[in-house]
Specification:
The complex is a heterodimer of chains A (625) and B (93). Chain A has 625 residues and is an alpha/beta fold. Chain A is built from 26 helices and eleven strands. Chain A has a domain of 201 residues: P-loop containing nucleotide triphosphate hydrolases (Rossmann fold), CATH 3.40.50. In chain A, the strands form three sheets. In chain A, strands 2-3-1-4-5-7 form a six-stranded mixed sheet, with helices on both faces. Chain A has a two-stranded antiparallel sheet with strand order 6-8. In chain A, strand 4, helix 3 and strand 5 form a beta-alpha-beta unit. In chain B, 15% of the residues lie in helices and 35% in strands. In chain B, strand 5 and strand 6 form a beta hairpin. The longest helix of chain B has 10 residues. Chain B is globular. The relative contact order of chain B is 0.30. The chains are: A alpha/beta (625), B alpha+beta (93). Chains A and B meet through helix 3, helix 7, helix 8, helix 13 and strand 11 of A and helix 1, strand 5 and strand 7 of B. The complex binds guanosine-5'-triphosphate and magnesium ion (MG). Magnesium ion binds next to helix 1 of chain A.
């Protein structure tokens, strides 16, 4: 063994069944901010961090996707298997396996530990969530477990710093003594017989070492008798989604007004300080009005994420999957597709990555291909802008905001189209194949951890701000350049922008988009909008600012110059259009081929065109032209 | 429930046919009749991994709206959601 006090010389890998708190432990050990959530399949990649033990030793810690066995049934489990067996090229197997078990339910975890022992690496078992176990009155005899397993066993509470002391002390002692050399691996894929034998042995250990309280905890079962009730459960799910979208609209308004006012003031200030001319135009019409028009939406995005994070940490996601299973299955989607699709409400990229938990390649592909149809948060600015400009802020039936209702409808349209596309794909390509099984662990409810919710919100806010500062800003600059140059002739009669490259470009594409009711300004805004959906809002902001709407907000300018039919067609376009370069790149990677990226691009574009076309013409028929 | 026979002389019920509220003990796993995209052996291994082994206590806690499917099963302290079709492989008494 080499000297363990060297920089990151020892590598520890966290392994365990899904949802036992590996990532929470990883974050606590390394100070990272990886995503945790109370459902199986949160982590789908390996993550590496460095930790410093209390005695000052530096170690590398690897967080891995949860798995029930090293059999590796799906791509995320392959990651775990390859790391543990040392099959990754250029990466040695970890020096120590830190096996993590949920102390409130360790049957499956102990079986996995028995399987892992065959790999021959030194191991240590952490009984995590000991706080919950104690609270429920579960008593665990760790000495008995140590003796039965032949491994060091410690208890921990990963979500609290103080809950880590026993683990750190053990790790330091191990490092001081030098980690044992690994034994040769005798691991082979377990058969049903092996699994059964191991599970029996694990159950015997649990029976000997764990004392359950006389009156078991029934909170989860009682909550579920409502939330998983065949009728009440579905009503609760719909009600929840509905409240979520109403909240996105109503709660966010005050902070949004504040941000908008801030940018207005900034614009006015710059106008006062910087002399008229190109520099002023660049700052006010380009940077401030472009980036500002997107940043306003930060509160809405954060409210949406707050809801999703709370539901994830509470343990509701698996329940929602349970309630939706028949509907999803009817549309040909795999039972485990629900969580990836729900994550896509935030952003399609983590959603597509989360599809790794689906074992069957065909089902995984379907999920990946329809994930971008779910309404991601980047569509919120587009939707809100158009809704704010064209849908009156009335209340319906006394309490519901009409704007919130339209937003809800747009989300519903995304969901329905994802189901429809997958149903069509199933019908066309694999009608006769039997449906894959659905088996999912329903975790006990947990009180959300305020800290991890805040970290989750901050991560989102940071990503959004970073995007505003990079992609959105640079696209805005591009649009400003295109919309400003070439400068108009000396005695121009039209607004300056009509002589610009933007107008030329817009007019070039316009014939293609005229049938769906788009004007040349929309046509040109769609180009930078390919980089990211929100950019279209920034681009419209810049184009209309330069066109000389004066100081009025983008929304007002749009309300002036678009017909209702055009606005609705634009919304319909955005339900489907593949306007996000990073999503397409992730599809190429996760689906394993550029072919799938182009298929997604093609079908979404076709749907967008058809949907916008129909919407426009139907709206015109009803006199909204 | 005459679909399945008996085990050790006691009549067994496939969990896939049991009603909500059913409580029992697993007699054996018989995945060979399940229609699925997975092999019988793979279904059996997955069920075992989720805790469905002979002798485990099971209880059907909840069921879905359409066709009473899927079901949420309590098995030795954990709760697992699965479809009735796969649950047909679990014989209980
Ligand atoms: N009360 C309590 N909650 C915990 C503890 N450890 C983890 N949790 C919670 O348990 C849930 C699961 O934690 P994760 O760290 O995401 O679990 P994981 O093992 O990484 O899960 P996968 O990545 O899906 O395999 C989260 O909601 C955590 O906040 C603990 O020690 N005590
Ligand atoms: Mg994790």
């Amino acid at each position: 063994m080499n000297d363990q006090s060297e920089v990151g010389s020892a590598r520890f890998a966290l392994v365990g069944v899904p949802n036992c708190g590996k990532t929470a432990l990883f974050n606590q050990m390394t100070g990272s901010r990886q995503k945790v959530g109370n459902y199986a399949g949160v982590t789908v990649e390996r993550k590496i961090g460095t930790a410093r033990t209390p005695a000052g030793r530096k170690v590398d810690v690897v967080d891995l996707p949860g798995t029930y066995s090293l059999r590796a049934r799906s791509p995320d489990e392959e990651v775990t298997r390859d790391v543990i067996l040392g099959r990754r090229t250029g990466e040695a197997a970890p020096d120590l396996l830190i096996c993590v078990a949920d102390a409130t339910n360790m049957r499956a975890a102990l079986r996995l530990v028995l399987e892992l022992k065959q790999v021959g690496r030194p191991m240590l078992l952490v009984l995590n969530m000991i706080d919950i176990a104690r609270w429920r009155g579960i008593e665990i005899d760790t000495d008995a477990l140590e003796a039965a397993l032949g491994l060091p066993v410690v208890t921990a509470t990963a979500v609290r710093k103080a809950g880590m002391e026993a683990l750190w002390a053990r790790l330091d002692a191990l490092l001081a003594a030098g980690i044992a050399a690994p034994a040769p691996s005798v691991w082979a894929e377990p058969s049903a017989h092996d699994l059964r034998t191991a599970q029996r042995e694990a159950d015997r250990m649990v029976a000997r070492a764990v004392r359950h309280p006389a009156r078991p905890d029934t909170v989860t079962a009682r909550i579920d008798s409502v939330l998983l009730h065949p009728v009440a459960g579905i009503l609760c799910l719909l009600g929840l989604l509905f409240i979520m979208f109403q909240a996105v609209f109503t709660w966010a308004q005050p902070p949004m007004d504040l941000i908008a006012a801030g940018f207005d003031a900034l614009g006015t200030l710059v106008r006062d300080v910087v002399p008229d001319g190109l520099v002023q135009s660049f700052l006010v019409d380009g940077a401030i009005s472009g980036v500002g028009s997107v940043l306003v939406f930060l509160p809405q995005i954060l409210i949406l994420f707050l809801f999703i994070l709370l539901l994830e940490d509470l343990g509701y996601m698996a329940r929602a999957a349970f309630l939706m299973d028949r509907i999803m299955g009817g549309a040909g989607l795999h039972g485990r597709a629900f969580i990836p699709l729900l994550s896509s409400f935030a952003c399609a990229i983590p959603g597509i990555m989360a599809a790794r938990v689906i074992d069957n390649r065909r089902d995984r592909l379907t999920t990946i291909l329809v994930a971008p149809l779910m309404t991601c948060s980047a569509r919120i600015p587009v939707y809100t802008l158009i809704i704010g400009a064209f849908i009156p802020a009335r209340t319906v039936a006394g309490v519901l905001s009409l704007q919130g209702l339209v937003m809800f409808g747009l989300y519903a349209a995304g969901i329905v189209s994802a189901l429809a596309v997958s149903a069509v794909a199933k019908f066309l390509f694999w009608r006769r194949d039997p449906t894959p099984p659905f088996m999912l662990d329903l975790p006990d409810y947990k009180l959300p951890q305020p800290k991890s919710i805040l970290i989750g919100l901050w991560t989102r806010a940071y990503m959004f701000l970073k995007r505003a500062g990079t992609t959105i800003f640079s696209m805005t600059v591009l649009i400003w350049l295109l919309a400003t140059f070439p400068l108009p002739p000396a005695h121009a009669t039209e607004p300056a922008i009509t002589y610009s490259f933007a107008a030329m470009l817009g007019n070039l594409i316009h014939p293609l988009l005229a049938p769906v009711g788009f004007n040349w300004q929309i046509s040109v805004a769609l180009i930078p909008g390919m980089a990211a959906r929100e950019v279209a809002v920034a681009a419209l902001g810049t184009v209309y600012a330069l066109q000389g709407g004066g100081d009025q907000a983008v929304g007002l300018a749009l309300a002036h110059s678009w017909s209702l039919a055009t606005a609705l067609a634009f919304l319909a376009w955005y339900i489907f259009a593949p306007q996000c370069a990073s999503t397409l790149a992730v599809i190429r990677r996760e689906a394993g081929g550029a072919k799938w990226m182009w298929i997604t691009f093609g079908y979404m574009l076709a749907l967008a065109y058809v949907a916008a076309f129909l919407t426009y013409h139907i709206a015109v028929m009803f006199g909204a032209g | 429930m005459q679909h399945q026979n008996s085990f050790d002389g006691r009549p067994t019920v496939p969990l896939g046919q049991a009603l909500k509220g059913f409580r029992g003990e697993i007699a054996r796993i018989a995945a060979d009749t399940t229609v699925s995209s997975l092999s019988a052996d793979e279904i059996e291994r997955r069920l075992i991994e989720l805790g469905f082994v002979e002798g485990a206590e099971v209880q059907i806690l909840h069921e879905g709206l359409f066709g009473h499917d899927p079901i949420a099963v309590r098995v030795n302290g954990a709760t697992v959601a699965l479809r009735r079709r796969e649950a047909m492989a679990i014989l209980a008494y």
